[in-house]
């Protein structure tokens, strides 16, 4: 329960925001601890070390420092924490594995450099440093893989959200390139030359068969097949430079959302053949169990597809004559927020945005007509009880 704000609470600042693997929850690392929220419907699930708990000792653990990274393991009690801010709870070069049911750290990983990012799976821990990405086995915390990367101050790394597929994507040593590793296919590895300039964001869809990337120019987002490395679609966020903070697939690979410092979240429609192929992969186990139904199921999938088309220039019919810009696919839906540093996700035809400025946004997407999304809710993350 939140208490009335005090002067001490008002000084609590947000250092980190992030979604869990299926975007069902999101986390906030703050100058005084961390908070866990349910995404939709919005709910402040619990917090540790916020000013309301400052210097209250729980099982000899005193929460009185900043947390710069908070990574959940799905909806379990296991959380990875990295210290941050002016007064970090833990050293920024350590990853602490926190078990909230036991209220204690159950493991730690130490490094010589500052930790830039962490990703968790039931079987793996990914730790991102500026020039290296480490893969550890969760069970024994032994290192299984190390990837040398180009400078990666943003801590870019993506893992397939599905519990049944294990694919990782991270920057390569070559600027603008991505290394993809299929851990469930004997560590099959390929390199994708995604952009000519440095990467700004990357994301994998649920089944790990589609990779989305954006460069530091922030104008184009490219989609690649992670099995072949071939480009399967390209969409345009805008024509001017932007700092892209997040790109995110919806659970069925039908939509892709992108947030940047421009304050507009763009929603793109993924081509029907692309997201139906992803759907087919997700349903493969079920189809194998009932082979006789497979033709009917594939037919039904095609009939039920309601993908919208992304917007194109009125001059796109002159493809090949005019510059490529005029044949670009633009977002079919948009949601405008007042903040300039937000992450985003899509669930159940709704777009969710969480900003480092401390706001939560929820809006409806019209899956057929697109256009401006209708805002449903906006509220602060650190505020008095009952404020909207």
Automatic annotation (TrEMBL):
InterPro entries: PROPPIN, WD40/YVTN_repeat-like_dom_sf, WD40_repeat_dom_sf, WD40_rpt. SUPFAM superfamilies: WD40 repeat-like. It comes from the Eukaryota. One of its GO terms (cellular component) is cytoplasm. Keywords: Repeat, WD repeat. Belongs to the WD repeat PROPPIN family. This is Uncharacterized protein. It comes from Stylonychia lemnae.
């Amino acid at each position: 329960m939140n208490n009335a704000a005090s002067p001490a609470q008002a000084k609590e600042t947000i250092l980190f925001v992030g979604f869990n693997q299926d975007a069902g929850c999101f986390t906030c690392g703050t100058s005084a601890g961390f908070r866990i929220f349910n995404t939709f419907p919005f709910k402040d699930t619990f917090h540790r070390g916020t000013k309301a708990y400052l210097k209250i000792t729980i099982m000899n653990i005193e929460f009185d420092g900043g947390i710069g990274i908070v990574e959940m393991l799905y909806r379990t009690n296991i959380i990875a924490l990295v210290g941050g801010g002016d007064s970090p709870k833990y050293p920024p070069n350590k990853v602490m594995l926190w078990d909230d049911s036991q209220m204690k750290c159950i493991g730690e990983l130490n490094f010589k450099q500052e930790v830039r990012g962490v990703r968790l799976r039931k079987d793996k821990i990914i730790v991102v440093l500026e020039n290296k990405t480490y893969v550890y086995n969760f069970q024994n915390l032994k290192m299984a893989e190390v990837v040398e990367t180009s400078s990666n101050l943003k801590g870019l790394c993506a893992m397939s959200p599905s519990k049944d597929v294990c694919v990782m994507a991270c920057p390569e040593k070559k600027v603008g390139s991505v290394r993809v590793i299929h851990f469930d296919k004997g560590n099959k590895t390929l390199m994708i030359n995604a952009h000519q300039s440095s990467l700004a964001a990357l994301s994998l869809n649920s089944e790990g068969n589609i990779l989305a990337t954006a460069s530091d120019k922030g104008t184009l987002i490219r989609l690649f097949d992670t099995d072949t490395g071939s480009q399967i679609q390209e969409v345009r966020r805008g024509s001017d430079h932007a700092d892209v903070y997040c790109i995110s697939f919806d659970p069925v690979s039908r939509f892709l959302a992108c947030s940047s410092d421009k304050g507009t979240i763009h929603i793109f429609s993924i081509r029907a053949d692309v997201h139906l192929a992803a759907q087919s992969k997700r349903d493969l186990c079920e189809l194998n169990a009932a082979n006789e139904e497979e033709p009917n199921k594939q037919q039904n999938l095609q009939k039920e597809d309601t993908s919208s088309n992304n917007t194109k220039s009125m001059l796109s019919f002159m493809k090949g004559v005019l510059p490529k810009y005029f044949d670009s696919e633009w977002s079919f839906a948009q949601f405008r927020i007042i903040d300039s540093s937000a992450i985003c996700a899509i669930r159940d035809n709704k777009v969710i945005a969480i900003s480092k400025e401390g706001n939560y946004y929820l809006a409806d997407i019209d899956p057929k007509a697109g256009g401006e999304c209708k805002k449903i809710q906006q509220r602060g993350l650190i505020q008095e009880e009952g404020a909207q």
